[in-house]
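EI: anyone free to look at a 462-residue chain?
SC: sure, send it
EI:
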Amino acid sequence: MPVPVPQQRGVPAAETAHGADLTVLVIEDDPAGSITGPELSAAAGTRVRIRTARNLTEAGRLLTDDVDCILLDLALPVPTTTTAATAAPDHRPEPAPGRADELAVLTHVLRIAPLHAVLVLTAQDDTELAAEAVRVGAQDYLFRGELDARVLSRAIRYAVERKRADLAQHQLTESGLRAQENARLERGLLPTPLLEGSDLSFAARYRPGRSRALLGGDFYDTVRTPDGTVHAMIGDVCGHGPDEAALGVELRIAWRALTLAGLCGDQLLSTLQQVLEHERQSEEIFATLCTVDIAPDGRRAGLCLAGHPAPLLARHGRPARLLPYEDGGPALGLLPRARWPRRQVELGAEWSLMMYTDGLIEGRVGAGSSQRLGQDGMVAMVNSRLEQGLTGEELLEAAVAEVRELNGGELTDDVAVLLLGRDPERIRRRGRSASRPGPVSTAPPATAPAAASVQRPPLYGP
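SC: here you go
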């Protein structure tokens, strides 16, 4: 008859604390001569319960969650029906050539009891076989000739603790590999702005609220279309979990595709709402969004708001101020047939435009305080940094650091900040540099390095 495969519990039996009761399953064809429970209990200083099985069929029935250690006789015959019985994928080392038959009983027990400590019993002259058994997966081995209560109790304790350490190390390694894989995946989903050929400067900061994550429900993107228009977007999916992060990525990619296809304003947002309605987990999920499309000359832009905070505009020689919010529409996913008017905004010759998510303005002002920074506090903070002469990356770095400091620690919400700017002097310098003739070279043309504006912006935070 087939050998039953016991169900293994999620928490290994090897997590028995030192000094607690122990249950040992002895598997040998003549258990009458084995050491009894009272003898082991006296030697170990704690209660030891012994179960005995004369074959693997009985062992399968007696191998329950409360068993801490298995004492296995390597000389036990293996029925042919046991070779196909597996409880979990077997990733252990294969026995050395010529040893597979001798260790067949051990490999079977290791397959049906992957979370239990295993001690093997062998004859005194089988030292090499005993060492091979440990290499294959047993925690230790004992010779029959030196089997007494004191030696056995110590070996059982050692096997249980070693198994616990092995399982903990295996779980730690798996967790590390999963974390690395998730980090590579999430990093690959962060946007790479497509701004090649644009005179505008670009900077961004991104920090998810989830612990040990690289991607949150906030999302942003920036692309330049063939007509020279620069399109920028920032949004926020309600919630902070992995489902919200995945939905944010979907919306960002959909926005990029629709923008490159020529959609803009209300038509684009209406299509994005359809994407959201089809992809969200429940009808309560919504997303706020802010989009701008900056004309090729860089002096004016169209603005659409879908329940999102208005951007901050700083012109040369003037304090930064919030753009009008009154003409904004509702967040995506709230109203089936909503509309999002596109408002024309004059930017001027020299300016900086900061787009952000509410994680930047909802931090507290002082540890334990109920007062939030808010938009007015953010505007005052940015203006103070502008007066210090900070721009671009330095401005964002300083602003985010101050928000965290005011909050008294890490921010709990996702934070995304995007900064676009136009500097006529910088444009003139680039133009002079491009028009200046260089030395004649006979070398083959090299591939031009990627522009700094198309690099993926750095992350910050833990």
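EI: The longest strand covers residues 230-237.
SC: 👍
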